[in-house]
Design goal:
The protein has 133 residues and is an alpha+beta fold. The chain has 2 domains: 60 residues, Multidrug-efflux Transporter Regulator, Chain: A, Domain 2, CATH 1.10.1660; 47 residues. It contains 6 helices and 6 strands. It has a 3-stranded antiparallel beta sheet. Strands 4-6-5 form a 3-stranded antiparallel beta sheet. Helix 4 crosses helix 5. The chain is elongated, with a radius of gyration of 18 Å. About 11% of the residues have low confidence.
């Protein structure tokens, strides 16, 4: 019955690339992820997270996604970052703007951005355009 390490909902969210814990709760409610109850706590087995990732990416090996193997001791490995986008905080740092200005530009449509699981991503080309490169 060993399914590897057990993760809390917050730990599973980090394991899945830093998504919202509410997204994990939604997937649990819809049956997309399996839960394991430990007392009153909801836990998710590592093998269930890896199976979920494999089902979402059938042509990708789970190890390519940066998911830790059962033998790793360092906990949760981050998902590989997309090199073509920046977070609004990174974009603000690159442009030397306040972060709220980047968000305002994204919301108004004056700056092109991508909403990914409720989080903004700014294409690097947009930053280069703003810097005049």
């Amino acid at each position: 019955m060993d399914g590897g390490k057990l993760y809390t909902v917050e730990g599973a969210a980090a394991f899945l690339g830093g998504i919202s814990k509410w997204t994990v709760h939604s997937w649990l409610a819809k049956g997309k992820l399996r839960r394991t109850k430990v007392g009153a706590r909801t836990m998710i087995r590592e093998c269930d997270l890896q199976a979920f990732l494999s089902a979402c990416n059938p042509n990708t090996d789970v190890e390519q996604l940066g998911v830790p193997s059962n033998g790793e001791q360092d906990g949760v490995a981050p998902m590989p970052a997309n090199q073509n986008t920046l977070t609004p905080q990174e974009a603000a740092r690159e442009l030397k703007w306040p972060v709220r200005s980047v968000y305002a530009q994204l919301r108004s449509g004056r700056m092109r951005g991508i909403r990914d699981t409720g989080r903004w991503k700014v294409p690097v080309e947009e930053i280069d355009k703003r810097r005049g490169l």
